[in-house]
Amino acid sequence: MRLYFDTSVLVSLAVAHHPHHDLAYVAFRQVTTGGHEGFVSAHGLAETFNTLTRLPITPMVHPTEAYRFVSETIVGRCAVVCLAEKDYLATLERAAKAGLRGGVIYDALQLRCAEKARCDRIYTFNISDFVRIAPHLGKQIVRP
After folding, report:
1. What is the mean pLDDT of residues 114-119?
2. I want to staple 119 with a disulfide (CB 3.0 to 4.6 A). Which of 4, 43, 85, 89 is the partner?
């Protein structure tokens, strides 16, 4: 099975005392045990680093720790999906036609990556926005 991990799941996985950590861990473990293939977006790597280094937690996540998590835990176990210009333009066009505004475009780009990788399951803690953006993927979009 091809599993896609949204930033919300990756951040939860990285922070042991995050309220969703256990759920994220169980989902990601499907990849680490070798049973399934994992996928993330290139943009999601940057989002994860950004979020981890700005979380209001004590102690704060040091940038080198965030980088290690992204490079070893995520990239070490998941394929990174990159978008081409045509993917960005198609996603922007779809968002414009749907009347979507603002930062939701980043969720739309995550979904484009999941589609491009032909993922069977898309893990996110942001189900409502993901389904609103891509109702045709509703059965694949799940909470860990």
Report:
1. 97
2. 4
